[in-house]
Each structure stands twice: as structure tokens, then as C-alpha cells.
Amino acid sequence: MNQEMNGVDVERIQENGHEKIDYVFKVVVIGDSAVGKTQILSRFAKNEFCFDSKSTIGVEFQTRTVTINGKVIKAQIWDTAGQERYRAVTSAYYRGALGAMLVYDITKRQSFDHVARWVEELRAHADNSIVIMLIGNKADLVDLRAVPTEDAVEFAEDQGLFFSETSALNGENVESAFFQLLEEINRAVSKKALEFTNGNANHGDHGSVSLKGSKIDVISGPELEISEMKKLSSCSC
Ligand SMILES: Nc1nc2c(ncn2[C@@H]2O[C@H](COP(=O)(O)OP(=O)(O)OP(=O)(O)O)[C@@H](O)[C@H]2O)c(=O)[nH]1
Ligand SMILES: [Mg+2]
Fold first, then answer.
1. Which fold would CATH assign to domain 23-205?
2. Which residues surround ligand 2, an ion (CB under 5 A)?
3. What DSSP element (H or E) covers 113?
């Protein structure tokens, strides 16, 4: 059986003979080019920031294992290219994603104006129950602000998104934003698991499990996605 199953707690998984992983949560980071997607991810996964970061080509992921409510969760976070010419969006990128970080740059109004399009893309390609966190990045550039916080709060409320302003540069709110997203996913997954235990689930063929209408395919794990997409080295500096 595939050992990395998005959000499926069939049994506690032993990794490297030491770490026990309860859940693997796939999260995608999306948004316009140069808003800071790669640097936010780098800050969360490695506590690093690169001033001379190169624009991402293709897709890559980084992981970080955290404990939330006593559960050991491996966050597998996928970064992608924001540049239009590199963005051949395939449903494989969104497949199995339980959460999304939708990033704009608080100093670039256009990147915020495009957020609605990114939400549409998520609604079209991702699972209905995906948890979305809107992120206004580069909050350290106070004097260059072009997007008032209230505009983003209003949009987020309207669309049912969580919201935070971050700085990948000084680390402000990056940790808390990811933790909030992972906590929300954990809450949703635990609820589904409870419903499953209570006998509301249907077993499908080929190891797939239907949990109250939302299907988690335990075959299509990250390995499949890696083989379908170009995985590049983790450092773009
Ligand atoms: N001041 C400041 N600069 C940032 C911050 N985050 C990223 N940057 C800078 O913004 C530029 C773009 O950052 P990236 O992380 O490469 O942007 P991206 O969204 O991954 O861009 P693509 O890969 O092209 O989609 C880089 O020069 C970063 O150093 C931040 O929080 N504050
Ligand atoms: Mg990038």
C-alpha cells in the first residue's frame, strides 16, 4: 500500500524507522510571479530567505513535519511557477491537495486583482473541500503598500478564505499562517475520519475510500505526481 496517503490515517506510518507520521497533507502555493511564493515556502520549510531568488520553472515541493493536536503531520508543500509562460496547469498539480496558500504582493495591486482568477482556478481543478489561505506577502515593505488590508479582509470574507499578511523576509506570520492552514485541514480530516469510523463511509474499488462524498484516492500519492511533473532541485538561489 502506498505509504504517503493524503490525509488518510489508516495506520500510523513508520518513516526512516523513527518518525511516525499520522498524516501527509499536500498543500499547493499559488499566485502571480514574484509575489514571494518560493521564499514563503523556503522560510517555512528551512527558515531561509534568498534575496537573489530566481523565478521558479516547473514545480517542486518541500516538506516539514509538525505536530498538531498530538498528530504528527508531514506537510508536503508544492511550489509552482507564477509566470504565465511556464504555467501549463494540469489537474495533477491540484490532485490530492487539501490546502492552498494563495499569495499576492501587498506592494503590487495587480497581483491582488488577479487573486479572484486564482480562486476560480482552484474551484475548477481542486477538491471542493480544499482549505484556502489568502496571503498578502512582503508586509515588511510598509512604505510601498498598494493593497489596504481591509480590501483583502473583505475579499477573503466574501470568498470564505482564511487570511494573513506575511513577510518571508523577516518571517512575520509565515509560521502562524501555515500552522493555521494545517490546523484547519487537520480539523476537516479528523471530522471525516470520525464519520468514517462511525460507519458513514463507503469502500470503493482499488483502495479508494469515499468519505461522505469527498473521495480520497489512496493510490494517487505524491509519487505519481512526481512522475507526472518535473521535479527540480529545492534551492532556486
Ligand atoms: N521585501 C520582501 N521581498 C520578498 C519577500 N518575499 C519575497 N521577496 C522577494 O521577491 C522576489 C520574488 O520572490 P519569489 O519567492 O522568487 O517569488 P515567486 O512568487 O516564487 O515567483 P515565481 O517563481 O516567478 O512565480 C525575490 O526577489 C524575493 O527576494 C518579502 O516578504 N519581503
Ligand atoms: Mg517561485
1. Rossmann fold (3.40.50)
2. 37-38, 56
3. helix 109-113
